[in-house]
Every structure is written in C-alpha cells, then in structure tokens.
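Notebook B, p. 112. Complex prediction, attempt 2.
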Amino acid sequence: MLPWLSGLAADPGRVHTEGHVARAAVEGAREQVAALVGARPREVVFTSGATEAINAVAFGCADRGAQALAPVEHSAVRDAAARAGEVVALPVDGLGRVSVDDIALDGVGLVHCQWANHEVATVQPVAAVAEAARAAGTLVHVDAAAAVGHVALAFADMPVDLVSLSGHKFGGPQGTGALLVRRGLRLPPFVVGGDQERARRAGLENVAAIVGLGAAAEAVGASTADEAARARQQTDALLAAALAVDGVVAYGDTRDRVPHIVCVGVEGVEAEAVLLGLDQAGVAAHSGSACSSESLEPSPVLAAMGVDAERSLRLSVGWSTTDAEIAAFTRAFADVVARLRALRA
Amino acid sequence: MLPWLSGLAADPGRVHTEGHVARAAVEGAREQVAALVGARPREVVFTSGATEAINAVAFGCADRGAQALAPVEHSAVRDAAARAGEVVALPVDGLGRVSVDDIALDGVGLVHCQWANHEVATVQPVAAVAEAARAAGTLVHVDAAAAVGHVALAFADMPVDLVSLSGHKFGGPQGTGALLVRRGLRLPPFVVGGDQERARRAGLENVAAIVGLGAAAEAVGASTADEAARARQQTDALLAAALAVDGVVAYGDTRDRVPHIVCVGVEGVEAEAVLLGLDQAGVAAHSGSACSSESLEPSPVLAAMGVDAERSLRLSVGWSTTDAEIAAFTRAFADVVARLRALRA
C-alpha cells in the first residue's frame, strides 16, 4: 500500500500515465479479491466496507418487496433492511441457526442470510435458505463478513445473487470491503454521482486501500486451510480454558462454526467487568453486544437465541494471533472471573 | 498513518486498551479537521469521501422538499439531489457563477451551493445564496471539496448548515472526507447499521485514513496562505503560458477563483489529444468533462456556461507541484497544440 499513499497516488479514471498505473493496480486487486471468493472480477464492486456494501444491497432492492432476515443478522443488515421497507423475520434455533423448514417468503423480494454469525460463529444453512428463496423467486444476499478469508467460499457455485465482505476481517485495511453482484443483475447504486466501479459505486477509488485488500485476499487465499486449522486450534483452546471455569457456558454451535470465533456466557458477572479484567492482562476481547459500541443494550443475536446477553463474551483470533496470546487468556480468565465473583459475594 | 495500518489497527468502539488508543487517535483527527474549517469537533462526521458526504446530505434532506442547485455543481451533488426528489435549477452566468438576483426558492427545502467550481475555479457567492436561502427558510449545503485547504473557511461564521469536504483534495489520503453538520441539526444517517460517529455514519472507522486526514488538515491549516500564494503564482503561470498560444481562451473567473485551478479552451483540437500529448511530456492534466472518467460527454459545467466542453482542459496544482513541473507544461503546451493543429490541417 505504501507507494499508493505517497508518490503513486492518482485518479484511476484519468487518461494520463499516472491514472493508467492506478487503474492497473485497482484492476489487479479486483482479480485478487475475485480469486479469493471464486467470482469473476467484473462481479466485484469495491466499497468503503461491508456496512456500505450491505446498505447498497438493502437500498438497491428496496423496490423488490419485503426483505426477509433472521434477527441474528448483523445490525448493518437489520438496520439497512428496516429502512428499505417491510421486514419479514426468519426463525432461528437456540444455536442461532436459521430454521429452514419454517421460513415463509410470501411477498419477499430479497432474503438476507449471513454465511456465519459474527457473534456466536454458527454457520448458517445458506444453500438451503437460497434454495427456498429461489423457489419463491426472490433474490438472496449473503453477508459473508464473518466468513471470507476464514473458510473457502466460491461465489460461482453459490446459488446466491449478492455477497458482501469486509477487508479488515481478514487482514486487509480498515475502510475497505466489496460487494459481489451476480453477472446480469442490475442493482441501482447506493452512492451516486460518478461512474466509478462501472457506475455501481460513485466516488474516487481508494487506491491504497484497494491494493491492500487485494494483497490480503491473495495472501489469505493461499493459506485459508492452514489459517483455519490454526484458528480452530486456538479457539478450541480458548473455549476449553473458558469452559473449565464453573458457570461458564458456550453459545452458538461450537462444532459447525467459523474457526476464528467462539462465544461464552459467564454466570454471575457482567461482561464489561470481564473485558476490563482481561484488558489488564493484555487480552482484548469483545462483549456479545452491539457491534459499534460496548453498549449495555442486549445483543439481538443472543436475545433471539434466548440467551442472557449481558453475560456473554466473544473471543476471536486473527491472522496475527499467537499461541502466547492464547496462553495469556488461559492464565488470566479464571482469575478475572474469580475476582469479580468474590467482589460480588 | 503507518502505525495504524499495522500494529495499532483496532476498533475505536471497544473498551479494551487498543480500542481506547484508536478512539483517541480518531478524536484527535476530528479536532484537527475541525480546526482547519473553523467548526466544533462534534460537528465533524467522517465519511469515505466527499461523494458519500454529499449523498448523505441529499438523502438526509429528501423529506424537506425540493433541492435547488446550479447545473455547475459537481456530478455528486447533481446525481444525489436528482435521486432525492424534485430539483430546482439555479441560474449561472457565463463565468459559471450563480446569479443570486434571479434565484427563486418556492417549495425548496435545501439549497446546494459549492464554495468554488471544481472545473473552472470560479468562487461562488455562498454568503448571498445562503442569505436568500435563510430568508426562504431552507437549509444550505456547501460542497467545499474544491476549496478546503486552498482558501480559509470558517464554518462557525458561515450561515450554512452542512459542508462536505474531500481529504485527497488537500493532501490527505484517498477514501476520506467529512461532512460538517451544524450543531442541533438532525440529519438521518445515509449509511446505517451501527452507532459510529454518534450514530451519524455506520461502519468501522477507517482509523489510518482518518489520522491521515487529520494530519493533512493540520499541515495545510498552518500554511494555507503560503500554499495559496504559491498555487496562485503557479496557476497564473500556467494560464499565461496557455493564453500565449493562439486560439486559447480562459474559462471561468480567472480573478475571483480558487488558487489551484485554471481552465482553458483550445480552439481546433480535441481535449483528449492535448491530454495525451501533455502526458508524453510528463504533464498530467484533466479534460473539462465528467469527474469519473475522461468521457466524451460534454461537461455540464461548461455547457451551463455556454462553452464548448470538448475543447477544454483543467489545469490544477497541488501541495507537491514544483515550479519545474510548471515549466514542463510551459515548454510542452505550445508544441502539443501546434502539432495537433498541423495534423488536422
């Protein structure tokens, strides 16, 4: 990314040499991202992040009828769909998984179905949901932000129309994402005012970030299986360490899950206090609450699963997580919980 | 920006130490941007660029009635306003300046008025337009993308409600911008799905880019007058060199203009051919056509001024432009035009 943040910065839409060089870099990154997700390069639209991509989907499909989604979807999907018009709720089970047998799609124009849950890691039955959607004649959008780079994903083979993804979730820079748009599908643009991205997303291309996204896609694409195995091992260790403490339970599907996330509930103490205790031990964890803040609002994901959200912790690993960091959690967690419970007693 | 692209990358919305450090960086950048434009930090909403900020304005004001704008506004303003609903055209004169005496604002809920034109550099009578808008009870949005960093601008003293700006236009990174929202004004968010930016713009903050935007704002804020004087001198030299060639005319107001842009028309040759000739001489210039591509569509700016857009060139300088580059243009321009005319003859 560095050259693009300094001397090479240019507008890829221009005819001068600097513009052509920037254009080539953007198109190279598009091929890298397409390769990671098994899509054609022309199906990749760069955005400022998954949130924008998801807004583009919900907004662009607003005229197609109601939008169906489970309450375990990310707040970006829930809020963007609610703004677009009528929302139809899809049922979920106690693991946060969409109950395919019970979905009804009358009057629905678009079904949102995440690839995997961002808080409890449960993998969704995307193929079955998509089959039901196709039978009902509706489009399907998959929020794959919690999955891309962590599991193999082939857009060409998926019976879905739209996929959103986030760069920083797999080692790319913040401020990048992409929307995959099935060839032939015309989606009105969300950000208008220029013909960038084949008139699908206006605004000067963020060349440096796009180049970084492409590089991350290529790196993670070459090592997804290895990364997944390591992440699985690390999160299995996190989960085992957490469950070894009395009154700790696992949320979501601990087997059929994305490899880099686990979610646990801790009886008798507030999540925020645990987070602060872990932070003192050098461990950055995340409560099972809203994405945008550690608000005290209960997580809609856990509420939909019938779980007490105020006691939940989301533990995740990334490409840079070391086994030493896993060991630091293992050492700290029992102590933090014991201290908090003692204070409370 | 470098630390934020590597080890320090974190979500500013989290309670862990990494999150707090990122939050402090974002808020520091907010103070830097606020200082540059004379706003309160809380009035600054970070976006992925001016295009998104402009979309947020037009979308957020869609329920307020028609939107008034001159045809010389940037395509982002024109397209976003057209999507929001009814558009009322403001008249312009032959220099591309809004004719304040002739504007009528019946049924208008929002007036867009750029600070300065992005193609011909003409400074707009923002204060007079804002006065007329205030008298009519409508909000005012100023697209200041072509002005911020190049002229002094004090939001606190401007009788306007919303200002959009672009980071890369004054030395910040691509993929950044901001919307200034007057204290007390509630604008529905454009990108929804998270409470970032005080629930005014959802999506993980692009920390590195925001830090870069802040640094650029501080740097340019400390040297705006010097930069403007240098840019004015350089563009005066560009203009003089261009006008020394027979059949070259200036477009826009060459006196009351932003210092870093001039626009000229070249009789008898296509703009694109001149661009390519200049490119061979190492000069990256820009035709007076659409922002997002060197399309053959005539520029609406020049069309509104009654000018033949296919013959126009936009010449601009930035903080990194050297006098040697100005000299390179001066050496090349007459030759390029003469060669093209000879080919045609």
